[in-house]
Design goal:
- The complex is a heterodimer.
- Chain A is α/β, with parallel strands linked by helices.
- In chain A, 44% of the residues are buried.
- Chain A has 9 helices and 10 strands.
- Helix content of chain A is 38%, strand content 24%.
- Chain A starts with 5 loop residues before the first strand and ends with a helix.
- The longest helix of chain A has 18 residues.
- In chain A, β9 and β10 form a beta hairpin.
- Chain A has one domain: Rossmann fold, CATH 3.40.50.300.
- Chain B is mostly helical.
- Chain B folds into 2 domains: 268 residues, MetI-like (MetI-like fold); 208 residues, MetI-like (MetI-like fold, Orthogonal Bundle).
- Chain B has 22 helices and no strands.
- The longest helix of chain B has 40 residues.
- Chain B is globular, with a radius of gyration of 24 Å.
- The chains are: A alpha/beta, B mainly alpha.
- Chain A: One of its GO terms (molecular function) is ABC-type phosphonate transporter activity.
- Chain A: It comes from Haloechinothrix halophila YIM 93223.
- Chain A: This is ABC-type phosphate/phosphonate transport system, ATPase component.
- Chain A: It holds the Pfam family ABC_tran.
- Chain A: Keywords: ATP-binding, Cell membrane, Membrane, Nucleotide-binding, Translocase, Transport.
Chain lengths: 254, 577
């Protein structure tokens, strides 16, 4: 429990003239379960991208698992990316591939290239994939084309992909926003269960405030690219949460 | 995802009939097994077809390479460094260039007019509206409009050109009609699909409010579909430049005509000057068209994201410029549409048709005709197989390296190397497709004996240029999110490519390959004309010897063959999707 998993200080991200994030300071310790809430456009997805190393910060310092993203070599970054699993809102699976390959894509960071290429013809480590699919409850879908699965099933495939990746940290970007509410609650509790089981750190962006307040110990409020609050669930008041969204309502009609 | 695919299919030169039908509901279990079984069947059939075609084309048999021609081919390429650049020849080239450009502009304009009217008349929206009771009549009308468009689409520009040359003699109207009619029929089909994809609610609302069909169309359906039609028109313009050059080869004037003259006298430096001019024209048209089309794609993304519909200044400016160009072109070539209703042309036309009717099999006999049809088919299959492989090879380096844009890794050196590779492969592709297949065929005949193999290779070289670009565009248009997700697991670029790019792009590559196969079977005529064999060569001989009855039979065989290819290709595409 010595060094933090993530340490951001003064992180900003700009796309041309648009500022997506500005002056974000955030530290995540091992074993924590953090929910990020905030109105749409607040910069939640950008924050996830910065954390898993697919979006470069335009200013500030990003350290993930002891690796300084701004100074490390591509190889070192990939090494730390390998230990961070991400689940995306739109699942972000390759629909044309069979489920087994999409799950195995979680191993790409640790496989040599020849093994990755060979696996597309003769799937490798099928048992491990099968175990992961069993764990997320779709063990019978191993050889289905991913695009043929329903939304909830696809998100389970994405979770299985993270499971075989064997990460120390799971990032979830609106994991349930594209699924119907009942399935969404199932997926969410599955995620929480898994993180407790293996003891991985979990950081999730959620649009659903109820869900965030109900299941996470630490809640971070993001608004217009800046952190509005960062508190223990117990210390958070309803007024603070309302203010996060009230601000949006006041400025929205432009 | 599905919507994007279909949108892109409409934007791309796809003439597939599938774009307007909704995707089938996701099948599970037995459905998926059935589909993969079907796919395996097709794969087997394709491999068999390729092997048979390769054998038929004479691959592996001797007497293909003419070694003594290598010297002239070397001389030819050596001449590239010293094209003829004196003032007299440059003036001639410039004039020819303007003529080719003018033909392309006027042909495209005509095709847009035909496409607009034909598209409306063959759209389901047009025939679906109205009173319920006359359903049968409406279906018949729609079917008739579609059927009328099939024949002009099945006949290649060059064949139209040869026909109109007989009717009008050497006149600018020949090239304009020869480009405008087949292109118009294709545009009509694409436009009708665009119209049927556009939301129909505003249109039916207007009809319900009692407006007439044409005005409801004008207010409710055309405005949202028009920008897509225009951007498609620009793509057609690009193709029209190449067609105008080919038409020149058969005698319609312009760059192609000059090329043919210089080829006959083997003046290599002149050929190179003309080729450079053609490449220049092609590249300029390509660039303009891709500017307009990417602006259109941006606009569509914006409106999809809820940003509202905005007028694109580039599109408007291009439209105004296009209108000016049409007027200038008509003046430059001295277009006189009065010849259309001159008595003499009608007389010639009617005489030609009466000589052609009834069609006769002529000297070759039915078995000979079938044989030639088989040879033509083999030529197209060999051509598309080579082009598919080479195109896919070029497509990946030619795609925009945007996938690394928002990414942490990649050093400056790697980025520069990647950009250089992109520019180089794009340049190769543009040159390959700027030079029309008959010119490639003429070049190949230096080193190969006449036959279907040089024809197939000529078609393959040209098609590689087209296919490589279409494939590169489809790699550009891949959904970036799954790729990012795979990269987020720490996978290297080559692994992202294996797991993300190939599986997602492969079905589109196959679809494009099949679409180009449909085009290639039509283009076998073009290389046939320069002696590469097949039905095209026969047709050329028959027209040359005024055997119109025989030519009509050959033409009918050719149309039938293209129909068979179209149906097969559509069936394979359905199983791939």
């Amino acid at each position: 429990m010595s060094s933090p998993i993530f340490a951001l200080s003064g992180v900003g991200v700009r796309y041309g003239k648009n500022t997506a994030l500005a002056g974000v300071d955030l530290t995540v310790e091992p074993g924590e379960r953090v929910a990020i809430i905030g109105p749409s456009g607040a910069g939640k997805s950008t924050l996830i991208g910065v954390l898993n190393g697919t979006i470069a910060a335009t200013s500030g310092e990003v350290t993930a698992l002891g690796c300084d993203y701004r100074r490390a070599s591509a190889r070192e970054i990939r090494k730390s990316q390998r230990r961070v699993g991400t689940i995306h809102q739109r699942f972000d699976l390759v629909e044309q591939l069979r489920t087994v390959h999409n799950v195995n894509a979680g191993r790409l960071g640790s496989w040599p290239f020849w093994k990755a290429a060979l696996s597309l013809l003769l799937p490798r480590d099928v048992q491990r994939v099968q175990a992961a699919l069993d764990r997320v409850g779709i063990g019978d879908k191993l050889h289905h084309r991913t695009g043929d699965l329903s939304g909830g099933e696809q998100q389970r495939v994405a979770i299985a992909r993270v499971l075989v990746q064997d990460p120390v940290m799971i990032l979830a970007d609106e994991p349930v926003a594209s699924i119907d509410p009942a399935r969404g609650r199932e997926i969410m509790s599955l995620l929480l269960e898994l993180s407790a089981e293996v003891g991985v750190t979990l950081l999730a962006c959620l649009h659903d405030v109820e869900m965030a307040l109900g299941s996470f110990e630490r809640v971070v409020g993001l608004r217009a690219g800046q952190i509005a609050f960062d508190k223990k669930r117990a210390d958070l008041t309803d007024d603070e949460v309302d203010a996060l969204y009230a601000f949006e309502r006041a400025t929205e009609p432009r | 995802m599905t919507t994007t695919c279909r949108r892109e299919a409409a934007e791309s030169p796809s003439e597939s009939s599938g774009t307007s039908t909704p995707p089938p509901a996701p099948e599970r279990g037995t459905g998926a097994a059935e589909r993969s079984r079907k796919r395996r069947g097709w794969a087997l059939l394709i491999v068999a077809a390729i092997v048979i075609s390769a054998v038929a084309a004479g691959i592996g048999r001797g007497q293909v390479i003419k070694s003594e021609g290598a010297g002239s081919l070397f001389d030819f390429f050596a001449a590239a460094a010293s094209p003829r650049l004196d003032a007299e020849f440059l003036a001639l080239t410039g004039t020819a260039m303007l003529t080719t450009l003018a033909y392309a502009v006027l042909g495209t304009a005509l095709s847009l007019v035909i496409g607009l009217i034909g598209g409306v008349l063959s759209s389901q929206a047009w025939w679906a509206s109205g009173v319920r009771s006359r359903r049968g009549r409406r279906l018949a009308g729609w079917g008739l409009a579609r059927a009328v468009l099939v024949v002009p689409r099945g006949i290649h520009e060059v064949v139209w050109g040869l026909f109109f040359l007989v009717v009008f003699g050497i006149d600018p109207i020949v090239a304009v009609l020869a480009i405008g009619i087949p292109f118009g029929a294709v545009t009509a089909k694409v436009f009708s699909e665009l119209l049927d994809e556009t939301g129909r609610k505003p249109y039916t609302a207007l009809l319900a409010a009692g407006s007439s069909k044409w005005s409801a169309m004008l207010y409710g359906l055309l405005p949202p579909a028009l920008p897509d039609l225009i951007s498609y028109g620009f793509y057609r313009f690009e193709c029209a430049i190449r067609s105008a050059a080919i038409l020149g080869l058969v005698g319609a004037g312009g760059l192609g005509f000059q090329l043919a003259l210089s080829f006959q006298t083997l003046r290599y430096p002149e050929i190179w000057t003309l080729l450079f001019a053609l490449i220049l024209l092609s590249v300029a048209a390509d660039y303009w068209s891709s500017l307009v089309r990417s602006a259109r794609a941006r606009g569509r993304r914006r409106s999809r994201d809820g940003g509202g519909v905005r007028r694109d200044p580039l599109l408007t400016a291009s439209l105004v410029f296009g209108a000016v160009l049409i007027a200038l072109s008509a003046w430059w070539v001295g277009l006189d549409i009065a010849v259309l209703w001159s008595g003499k042309a009608w007389e010639f036309g009617i005489q030609l048709l009466s000589e052609a009717w009834p069609p006769s099999v002529g000297g070759t006999g039915v078995s000979g005709l079938l044989m030639l049809a088989g040879v033509t088919l083999a030529m197209s299959i060999v051509a598309i197989t080579i082009a598919f492989g080479l195109g896919a090879l070029f497509a990946v380096p030619a795609s925009t390296p945007a996938q690394g844009r928002d990414h942490v890794e990649r050093g400056a050196v790697a980025r520069i190397a990647r950009t250089a590779a992109m520019l180089a492969s794009r340049f190769v592709l543009v040159v390959l497709r700027a030079i029309p297949p008959p010119v490639w065929a003429l070049l190949l005949l230096f080193v190969m004996y006449p036959g279907i193999l040089p024809g197939a290779i000529a078609l393959a070289v040209y098609t590689t240029g087209v296919l490589g670009r279409l494939m590169a565009e489809s790699v550009d248009n891949l959904d970036a999110r799954p790729l990012r997700a795979i990269r987020a697991t720490g996978a290297s670029a080559s692994k992202v490519f294996c797991y993300g790019v190939i599986p997602a792009a492969a079905p589109r590559f196959v679809a494009y390959g099949l679409y180009r196969w449909e085009v290639t079977i039509r283009e076998t005529v073009v290389v046939g004309v320069v002696g590469a064999g097949g039905l095209g060569l026969l047709l050329d001989h028959q027209i040359g010897s005024f055997n119109y009855a025989g030519a009509l039979t050959t033409l009918a065989t050719l149309i039938l063959l293209t129909l068979v290819v179209d149906v097969t290709s559509a069936a394979i595409r359905r199983s791939v999707r």
